Amino acid sequence: PSSIRLAVIPGDGIGVEVTAEALKVLQAALPQDVKVEGTEYDLGARRYHATGETLPDEVLDELKGYDAILLGAIGDPSVPSGVLERGLLLKLRFAFDHHVNLRPSKLFPGVQGPLRDTAPIDFVVVREGTEGPYTGNGGTIRQGTVHEVATEVSLNTAYGVERVVRDAFARAQARPRKKLTLVHKTNVLVFAGSLWSRVFTAVAAEFPEVSTDYLHVDAATIFLATQPERFDVIVTDNLFGDIITDLAAAVTGGIGLAASGNLDVTGTFPSMFEPVHGSAPDIAGQGKADPTAAVLSAALLLDHLGRTKASPALSEAARRIEAAVEADLAERAANATPRTTSEIGDALAAKAAVS
Amino acid sequence: PSSIRLAVIPGDGIGVEVTAEALKVLQAALPQDVKVEGTEYDLGARRYHATGETLPDEVLDELKGYDAILLGAIGDPSVPSGVLERGLLLKLRFAFDHHVNLRPSKLFPGVQGPLRDTAPIDFVVVREGTEGPYTGNGGTIRQGTVHEVATEVSLNTAYGVERVVRDAFARAQARPRKKLTLVHKTNVLVFAGSLWSRVFTAVAAEFPEVSTDYLHVDAATIFLATQPERFDVIVTDNLFGDIITDLAAAVTGGIGLAASGNLDVTGTFPSMFEPVHGSAPDIAGQGKADPTAAVLSAALLLDHLGRTKASPALSEAARRIEAAVEADLAERAANATPRTTSEIGDALAAKAAVS
Ligand SMILES: CC(C)[C@H](C(=O)O)[C@@H](O)C(=O)O
Ligand SMILES: CC(C)[C@H](C(=O)O)[C@@H](O)C(=O)O
């Protein structure tokens, strides 16, 4: 396409700084004739304090018109826990049916993770994004008394499970190792677990080349800490996916490097790309944040648009950004001089630029 | 006391082998005048296949009469997932009101964990054991159709949360660092999260010497992989506790070393002690299993009975077993000759014996 229209939600804390760098690199990686029209949306803690709004309906409506959304980070200690997460971030994921939450985990050459063993790590977690215990279903009675009862309901539908499992199988099929691991807790959560297992087995029959296995979520954390190289593609529910992708990020060098895409793979709604890390209010505004996760999220964005718009130019730009990050990380290993957020962004932009 | 009455449930797979060693060491560590009356209960996959029973009511009733229960491991691939877990293991935990699931994590000298960084790790997770998504609450409609919906309900009560939070504060208070971390997912699971947070804050007021903090479960996994030494005591719900204790075990050298106690701290019902590991059918019956986790669980058992029966002899025996494990692990580091399950048990028994 000659232009891509992006809604940009820098959000809170370091979200602002890292998003600026991500846009810088994204722009540099695209050929001159592809115009990026970025429109910034002021959403997050500041707006909430100013107007009480988290995500007004008009804004949600407007956002529908974009090719994609680039998001920085949401959350601030000044806002009660859950308000922005549920009123803004999760509202976007649910309203835009982001059922495939894609989280690649790769140990880039030169990056020192926390593990002693350094076998190559390169897997991707396909986290369900619209169901599970994330639906806000639950409640409280007798709040504040000794008789209080609070519930949280995990909702799982055949429709919702099947589409994400199918997506994960297709991704596994397209990778060299062709391996897919289902992660759940079927021995305790027997109702949801049975649904996930049955759907997984049924869809597997359509992908005979993909080898499959199953791990309970607790055992999966052990393997992530001791043998992460065993994983190729993982598919799991919303909550387990939340937990294991943070661990996966830690194991591959930290959430400063972990990117994610919240995809509506049908293309009905814009997909949204965001670093896995949070707003890190303690270091916000100091130029200390590593923009790499946001930059890699921008690469995921271009990769996604490249596929859905069948545009090789966008896909190539995505590859260039990934290569730039890879090269930069290798250099960081050799050169310990700390750089500011925008210095890292500048270096990545220079490396990703069309030559 | 002059005798302790133990119900022994070896269970499945390596459960049988490791329990035998645990009993051997327990016996050796106690002075001659303390008699151990162990009664074995045949429960697990074999019994299920033979009779269809998981935990008959008469057995449950009988078990109530013991001072404590020593359990090996439950589960076999020949039994559908969930049947033994829910019909036996969780039934025991729920029937005997095991609300404090205690899981110490310690990196013993000489043990090489998967982390590059080897700061001393010594914390304990107090996992709630009778609520959360473990209650079996949930269901399925339209099973097997494309319209299937499956739910899992997490139940949380002020009564249940308060007693485990209070227990965790008391444990933190008794430790040198006096630090307690609440782990939950309050930004998404707002109903349960709010209950846990409010109870935590309220009980904290009674323990002014204990310093507290809070981590979302996803962030907690990052810290467990990168800075486990930051933790002293963690309190968390049943499911999060399941997940992070497996990770904690991995980080401290593997589930071959991780012990646990399922406590009814009121003493109404017998508490139950078991290694965190499973039945490992792949290595069962080969003398390859490491009995150390079961042996450390026996030490937790003696420690618990020492407190509840105000018996210094039992507490001292617990200390001797821990010291024996510590010494043996240090020797293993120096001597790489692999030993069988019973050779390790013999060595631990000799070291733990009253001199
Ligand atoms: C901020 C929070 C609501 C979110 C989640 O739990 O999904 C975050 O942890 C993530 O993983 O994107
Ligand atoms: C076997 C299973 C039911 C159990 C649990 O989930 O509690 C186990 O993983 C544990 O941690 O003791």
Automatic annotation (TrEMBL), chains A, B:
Involved pathway(s): Amino-acid biosynthesis; L-leucine biosynthesis; L-leucine from 3-methyl-2-oxobutanoate: step 3/4
Reactions catalysed: (2R,3S)-3-isopropylmalate + NAD(+) = 4-methyl-2-oxopentanoate + CO2 + NADH
EC number, UniProt record: 1.1.1.85
Organism domain of life: Bacteria
Residue sites binding Mg(2+) per the record: D218, D242, D246
Keyword entries, A-Z: Amino-acid biosynthesis, Branched-chain amino acid biosynthesis, Cytoplasm, Leucine biosynthesis, Magnesium, Manganese, Metal-binding, NAD, Oxidoreductase
GO MF annotation terms: 3-isopropylmalate dehydrogenase activity
Main location: cytoplasm
InterPro entries per the UniProt record, alphabetical: ICDH/IPMDH, IsoCit/isopropylmalate_DH_CS, IsoPropMal-DH-like_dom, LeuB_actb
UniProt binding sites for substrate: R93, R103, R127, D218
Assembly description: Homodimer.
Annotated family: Belongs to the isocitrate and isopropylmalate dehydrogenases family. LeuB type 2 subfamily.
Name this protein carries in UniProt: 3-isopropylmalate dehydrogenase
Species, as recorded: Catenulispora pinistramenti
UniProt lineage: Bacteria, Bacillati, Actinomycetota, Actinomycetes, Catenulisporales
Originating gene: leuB
